[in-house]
Write a structure and sequence with these properties.
The protein is an alpha+beta fold and 250 residues long. The chain has 2 domains: 3-133, dinb family like domain (Four Helix Bundle (Hemerythrin (Met), subunit A)); 141-247, Nonspecific Lipid-transfer Protein, Chain A (2-Layer Sandwich). The protein is 48% helix and 13% strand. It has helices spanning 3-19, 35-54, 75-96, 112-133, 141-160, 214-221, 238-247; strands at 101-102, 109-110, 172-177, 187-193, 196-201, 208-212, 233-236. The protein has a 5-stranded mixed beta sheet with strand order 5-4-3-6-7. The chain has a two-stranded antiparallel sheet with strand order 1-2. The relative contact order is 0.11.
Length: 250
């Protein structure tokens, strides 16, 4: 996947949603936030990541220390600021090289990790904006599937480092995206591991399974919609899914 192009495209789509929106609109999927706060969060977050990569600093960089971290008051200029924020992380990674080790909140990772992370920050917050504005949200199956994998990778790393496991021992979760073009890349088997969880692509009978489009499974995993609201079928022990959601807060 071309993560650079995908990030810039998602950023452009988010900017167009926000260009004429009432930024005082509450964002129900981010309690306490307005669209104005979401706007700033995404743009400053991209610049924060770019500064970590470009200045070779730690991920404990104070967001208040991010250069040009506030959008201009003029709306069109603010949207340009948002676009420039995404371009900044793309450029920073290109300058250092995608495989160069850099600091992240999960420990050292290749620099391209930040582009993928910021990409899915954009896909999720574009969903937040669409939900706040009462608009439909779609995401290409391949991009939604990558978002699922990226979220699972993040959980594996965090739980190996001490975060509470999201599955009880001897339980498994099977995610099955029904989009035809995904093939085996649209199925995930998640298992309880010695420390946290592990996952792999595959198909097998599990304690609990979710069936639905990749975008709908993605939105359910990141709590943007209950599974039943986005036509995701929960099969098997529903308590495993409920427990999973309780143990994987964003």
């Amino acid at each position: 996947m071309d993560y650079d192009a995908a990030l810039l495209q998602q950023n452009t789509q988010l900017g167009e949603l926000l260009r004429s929106a009432d930024l005082s609109t509450p964002v129900p999927t981010c309690p306490g936030w307005s669209l104005e706060q979401l706007f700033k969060h995404v743009g400053r977050g991209d610049r924060w990541a770019a500064q970590i990569v470009g200045d070779r600093v730690g991920s404990d960089l104070d967001p208040r220390a991010v250069r040009d971290g506030k959008p201009p008051s003029d709306r069109d200029e603010a949207v340009t600021w948002l676009h420039d924020s995404a371009q900044a992380i793309v450029d920073a990674v290109a300058d250092i090289g995608p495989d160069a080790p850099v600091s992240t909140f999960l420990g050292p990772r290749p620099a391209v990790w930040w582009v993928r992370r910021r990409l899915h920050e954009a896909t999720v917050h574009r969903a937040d904006a669409a939900i706040a504005l009462g608009l439909a949200y779609e995401l290409a199956p391949s991009l939604a599937a990558d978002g699922i994998s990226e979220w699972l990778d993040r959980l594996v790393a965090e739980q190996a480092d001490g975060r509470a496991a999201s599955l009880d021992p001897s339980t498994t979760l099977h995610l099955h995206a029904t989009d035809d073009e995904l093939g085996s890349g649209g199925e995930w088997i998640v298992r309880a591991a010695e420390a946290g969880i592990s996952w792999e692509h595959g198909h097998e009978k599990a304690t609990t399974a979710l069936h639905g489009r990749a975008v709908d499974i993605f939105l359910a995993l990141v709590r943007r919609h209950p599974a039943t609201d986005v036509d995701v079928q929960v099969i098997g022990d529903e308590s495993v899914w409920s427990s999973w959601l309780e143990r994987t807060p964003l």
